């Protein structure tokens, strides 16, 4: 059974006003004092963000329990400092980001200017184990058309600097301002992948391999494929669904590679259009079907994803759980829809943030 790990970036906010608070260093210091051996929480680019990483899990119920536990622990540590956490991919309220004290982050700010200061965005990264770099590249080449569907499922960033952007995942539009972000062409082999990464670093435009911000990539730290396309999800069960689908996509792609099935090769230009469509509308309108790359209702595309990965989902015992989670997601809506419904009900973005902070903890 392939193992799966999840990294979530959370927004630190005032529990009463909903304003983002640049208190990550204080929260991390409290966490270290409370548990000197903790390696779960880390700082991010801005002081208003806190990241945690789960351990690799093979059982999705265990992964879900750990995500909930980490969110609650993050909220507990934040509460000791006078703030709380919210699983929001962008701040609905106006914010002036506070750059974390870090030589690498300072380099980014000096190198890229204004776009760096606009990167107060929170994502969900899913690591799925692979047996080798060759298997990993075979997977990356085959999952490309499905990444936009994961974007639509996870979309949780409709608001930016106090206004509705019109997008379900505005985080993705901000993130794609990095020069190395977005969909990729086919790599063909591990050698081809590593040569491409080396060429990118050699240009001097990016600092190092860690700045290869592809929507999915080989992890530089672990023997995994790392999916980086998702917004941080408002509800933990949506994060588990994303992780479940990522593992099933990896297993499906690896099986296709082993039996020699050919790789579909939609161009990067079309993949960018599919990604834009998913970011703009989430699950509310048509997506581009990953097979035909033509518009198709979002529920039908999600059904196609479950069918495409059906054998892998069945083999891991996740088929019923995934189908039920998709049904619930379509009924309830993704995080973007939930945020907009909260604003419609309360009339206040501050209330949206404080309610989302409450929901973040379960």
TrEMBL record:
GO MF term list: ligase activity
EC number annotated for this UniProt entry: 6.3.2.2
InterPro entries xref list: GCL_type2/YbdK_subfam, GCS2, Gln_synth/guanido_kin_cat_dom, YbdK
Catalytic activity as recorded in UniProt: L-cysteine + L-glutamate + ATP = gamma-L-glutamyl-L-cysteine + ADP + phosphate + H(+)
Pfam families: GCS2 (PF04107)
Statement: the UniProt record of this protein carries the keyword Nucleotidyltransferase: no
Keyword set, alphabetical order: ATP-binding, Ligase, Nucleotide-binding
Family: Belongs to the glutamate--cysteine ligase type 2 family. YbdK subfamily.
Function in brief: ATP-dependent carboxylate-amine ligase which exhibits weak glutamate--cysteine ligase activity.
Name of the featured protein: Putative glutamate--cysteine ligase 2
Species for this entry: Streptomyces rameus
């Amino acid at each position: 059974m392939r193992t799966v790990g999840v990294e979530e970036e959370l927004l630190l906010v005032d529990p009463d006003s909903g304003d983002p608070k640049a208190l990550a260093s204080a929260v991390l210091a409290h966490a270290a004092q409370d548990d000197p051996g903790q390696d779960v929480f880390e700082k991010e680019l801005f002081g208003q963000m806190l990241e945690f990483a789960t351990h690799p899990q093979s059982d999705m119920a265990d992964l879900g329990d750990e995500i909930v536990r980490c969110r609650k622990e993050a909220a507990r540590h934040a509460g000791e400092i006078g703030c709380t956490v919210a699983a929001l991919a962008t701040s609905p309220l106006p914010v002036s980001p506070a750059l974390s004290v870090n030589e690498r982050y300072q380099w980014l700010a000096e190198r890229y200017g204004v776009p760096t200061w606009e990167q107060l965005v929170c994502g969900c990264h899913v690591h799925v184990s692979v047996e080798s770099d060759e298997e990993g590249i075979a997977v990356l080449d085959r999952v490309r058309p499905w990444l936009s569907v994961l974007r639509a499922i996870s979309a949780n960033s409709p608001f930016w600097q106090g206004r509705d952007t019109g997008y379900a995942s505005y985080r993705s539009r901000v993130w794609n301002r990095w020069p190395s972000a977005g969909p990729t062409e086919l790599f063909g082999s591990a050698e081809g992948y590593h040569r491409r990464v080396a060429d990118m670093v050699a240009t001097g435009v990016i600092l190092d391999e860690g700045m290869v911000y592809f929507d999915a990539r080989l992890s530089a730290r672990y023997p995994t494929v790392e999916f980086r396309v998702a917004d941080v999800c408002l509800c933990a069960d949506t994060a588990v669904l994303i992780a479940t689908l990522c593992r099933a996509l990896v297993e499906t792609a690896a099986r296709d590679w082993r039996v020699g099935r050919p790789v579909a090769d939609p161009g990067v230009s079309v993949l960018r259009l599919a990604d834009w469509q998913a970011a703009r509308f989430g699950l509310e309108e048509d997506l581009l079907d990953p097979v035909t790359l033509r518009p198709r209702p979002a529920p039908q595309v999600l059904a196609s994803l479950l069918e495409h990965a059906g054998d892998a989902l069945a083999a891991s015992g996740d088929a019923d759980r995934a189908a039920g989670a998709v049904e619930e997601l379509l009924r309830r809506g993704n995080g973007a829809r939930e945020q907009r419904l909260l604003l419609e009900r309360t009339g206040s973005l501050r209330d949206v943030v404080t309610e989302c902070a409450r929901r973040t903890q379960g």
